[in-house]
């Protein structure tokens, strides 16, 4: 009977969160009818934990971080210089590839809506935990730390895609209906505060298969946030805090980086069922040409040195005997297997070395920066960098990030903006590229529903 009671409570909670996720926007969520039910959910750790893991499944399957063609690993790859979209009229990548996004674009609206619905769910968990009188302090800390991690993660992506945005920290629909956009500086402050709190609340130890964020995951995301916010000493220190955990995290051989038990992984999204692998492999892989959806751009593939192990191991060629096409080959299992072999990696050690290298170089610590950079180069079979000056070292880091992090949740787009190179890089490749294209349009449905979100981003 106890099991049935717990299951019933959780089904009720899922029905409620599903209704939230089906709303057009977080500002259109009706007055919650779930207050009593949510109290019941947070009487028991199993149902509270299940409510949290449901958010992870939605992050994996719906929205920006989905590994499918809908997600930013694909769409931002098309928007920059990583991928080439075919001209199939049904291909949603075409407006991204041709930088012809409109405020009415349904994919862009989906990024906004799914992220804020997932943020809403994280806030509901935080509020439910605060009201709970039955969960232990340890259980509350772990669940709240994860909810704060989720909230900061999604806001960080929203900020770097849309610019000034609302930072939502509660579930009051009356307040959320009339929110305004906050300056980027305040958004970064809020993200940093959330992550600092998450570091204090989350456990230090790893969980099985690293599918739940721990302190190191929060520190890694905090290091990235500091870097994006030009807080270079803090970025270097936070990256070092994780890089020094050598008993837990190590750079793997190039062929093992994306395997399910990789020591390089800091946090990854678990597949939905046993034996299922990644949506990335299912979407990007093709075995005959021409490519059905997208392929790696010739510009990108030709930028590698021929002896770079990332080119020979993470890029796969396909030919019809006359022409060659290429697809990402980081994830190789595009069908189900007896047991899952690959999960979608979101945070890994390779990025942390590049974060610390960049943060050190920006502070003039060129020797340390080159040491970090060379760790990534050596793993790829390359010699030490020949960069000498600060500008040369930063340019080398930028190039290594391009080769190391391609088709991983939009790094190239964010890097080009951060380094001030997006116009130079894309003007020659994209017809009609404008500097205002570095931000996506705020969805028109959002501006119509809540005029406080106006004005629209420039250029739209």
Measured as a percent range, the helix fraction is 40-55%
The CA-CA distance between the termini, in Å, is: 57 Å
Approximate shape: globular
The total beta strand count reads 6
Q: Output the number of helix runs.
A: 20
SSE arrangement, N to C: HHHHEHHHHHHHEHEHHEEEHHHHHH
Give the rounded overall mean pLDDT: 92
Radius of gyration: 22 Å
Spatial strand sequence of the major β-sheet = 1-3
Poorly predicted regions are 1-24, 26-37
Category from helices, strands and their pairing: mainly alpha
Largest sheet: 2 strands, antiparallel
Give the amount of beta strand, in percent.
Answer: 5-15%
Topology:
Blueprint: H1 2-22, H2 35-41, H3 45-61, H4 72-79, E1 83-85, H5 94-97, H6 106-131, H7 137-162, H8 173-176, H9 184-201, H10 215-228, H11 232-243, E2 265-269, H12 279-284, E3 294-296, H13 298-301, H14 309-314, E4 315-319, E5 324-328, E6 344-348, H15 349-362, H16 366-379, H17 390-404, H18 411-418, H19 422-427, H20 444-449
Antiparallel strand pairs: 1-3, 2-6, 4-5
Helix pairs in contact: 1-2, 1-3, 3-6, 3-7, 6-7, 7-9, 9-10, 10-11, 10-15, 11-15, 15-16, 15-17, 16-17
Task: Describe the protein.
The protein has 460 residues and is mostly helical. Helix content is 51%, strand content 6%. The chain has 20 helices and 6 strands. The protein has helices spanning 2-22, 35-41, 45-61, 72-79, 94-97, 106-131, 137-162, 173-176, 184-201, 215-228, 232-243, 279-284, 298-301, 309-314, 349-362, 366-379, 390-404, 411-418, 422-427, 444-449; strands at 83-85, 265-269, 294-296, 315-319, 324-328, 344-348. The chain has a two-stranded antiparallel ribbon. A hairpin with a 4-residue loop joins β4 (315-319) and β5 (324-328). α1 crosses α2, α10 (215-228) packs parallel to α15 (349-362) and α16 (366-379) runs parallel beside α17. The radius of gyration is 22 Å and the shape is globular. It starts with a helix and ends in an 11-residue tail after the last helix. Residues 1-24 and 26-37 have low confidence and may be disordered.
